[in-house]
Design a protein that fits this description.
By secondary structure, the chain is α+β, with helices and mostly antiparallel strands. Helix content is 30%, strand content 26%. The chain has eight helices and twelve strands. A hairpin with a 6-residue loop joins strand 3 and strand 4. The protein is elongated.
Length: 272
C-alpha cells in the first residue's frame, strides 16, 4: 500500500483538563479513551452506547491490524504542545488500563515520531474541531508524508489558513490589485480576510475560503458583496476553478498556488 493511501486517525487527549494524565499518556506513548465515565476497563463494544460503542468497535479493529493506519495522538496539554504519530501496536491491541485512578481503553503506539506544534503549525491549525477519535481526512497526505519523509508535500493542503491568506495577499500585490493593507490579514470581519487599498486609493475587500460546496460559496460571496458593494472591489479566493458570482471577482486557489514564489512556498512548508 502506498504511503498516500495510509489512513490517519486523529486522537484528542483532554480528559477534563487533567494535565497529569495527559503527561503520563504522552510519556507512555498511549492513545486513550475514557467512555463510561472512566469506570470500565472493558474493550467489548457492547459495554458502551452511542458514539462510545462505535469508537470502541473501530479501535478494536485497528488494534487487531485490520487497517493500515497512523494514529496522530494530540497531547496539546503537554508543555509546548505535542503530537505523537505512530502505528498501532497490534500485539498488545486495545486494552483496559488504570492510569491515575481512572479506567481507560488504550492503544500503544509503535514506530512513533514526535511532532511539535511550534515547529509544524499547520497541524495545530487544521486539527478536527470535535470528537475524541476520528479519521483526519483533510490532513491524511500531510501527516503520512511528514511521517515517512520528515517534510510536507508541496500542495495547498499543507498550508495553514493564515499562510494561505498571506499567499493570496501576495498574489494581489504582485498583480497590482492591492498596494497596502489597512488592517492585519485575517483579523477584519467574518466576511473579510484581507482589507487594503489599490494604487488609485480604492478599497479592496477579499475573502479566502477552503469551502468547495457551491451553496456555501454562494452564501459567502453574497455576504462579501453585501459588505463591500459600493465601498470597493470584492474578491473571493476559493478552491473551485469555475465558480463565479456577479459583482465578485473569483480567483481559484490552485491558480494562486501555481503563481506563488517558490522560495516563499518552500519556506512556508519548512519547519519553523
Amino acid at each position: 500500500m502506498t504511503q498516500t493511501m495510509t489512513l490517519v486517525y486523529y486522537w484528542r487527549h483532554n480528559f477534563g483538563q487533567k494535565p497529569q494524565i495527559v503527561a503520563e499518556l504522552y510519556k507512555l506513548r498511549l492513545g486513550a479513551v475514557d467512555y463510561a465515565g472512566g469506570m470500565s476497563l472493558s474493550t467489548d463494544p457492547a459495554t458502551y452506547q452511542g458514539r462510545g460503542k462505535s469508537v470502541i468497535t473501530l479501535l478494536n479493529e485497528i488494534g487487531k491490524g485490520t487497517r493500515d493506519c497512523l494514529l496522530a495522538c494530540d497531547y496539546r496539554l503537554q508543555q509546548g504542545g505535542k503530537m505523537v504519530v505512530g502505528r498501532p501496536n497490534t500485539i498488545s491491541g486495545l486494552a483496559g488500563e488504570v492510569i491515575g485512578g481512572v479506567s481507560y481503553k488504550v492503544l500503544r503506539l509503535q514506530d512513533e515520531k514526535e511532532l511539535d506544534y511550534s515547529t509544524w503549525p499547520v497541524f495545530a491549525a487544521c486539527h478536527p474541531q470535535q470528537g475524541t477519535f476520528c479519521r483526519w481526512k483533510s490532513m491524511e497526505n500531510c501527516i503520512a508524508t511528514w511521517y515517512h519523509t520528515g517534510s510536507l508535500p508541496v500542495e495547498v493542503g499543507s498550508l495553514t489558513p493564515g499562510q494561505l491568506e498571506v499567499l493570496c495577499y501576495e498574489y494581489m500585490k504582485d498583480g497590482n490589485i492591492i498596494e497596502r493593507l489597512l488592517c492585519p490579514i485575517g483579523r477584519a470581519l467574518r466576511e473579510i480576510d484581507i482589507v487594503g487599498i489599490a494604487a488609485d486609493g480604492s478599497r479592496v475587500f477579499a475573502q479566502v475560503t477552503f469551502a468547495t460546496n457551491r451553496n456555501i460559496l454562494m452564501d459567502k460571496a453574497s455576504r462579501l458583496l453585501e459588505f463591500g458593494h459600493g465601498r470597493g472591489k470584492c474578491i473571493m479566493f476559493c478552491p473551485v476553478l469555475d465558480f463565479s458570482f456577479e459583482g465578485v471577482e473569483c480567483i481559484s486557489i490552485p491558480k494562486v498556488f501555481e503563481a506563488a514564489d517558490k522560495t516563499m512556498l518552500r519556506a512556508m512548508l519548512s519547519p519553523m
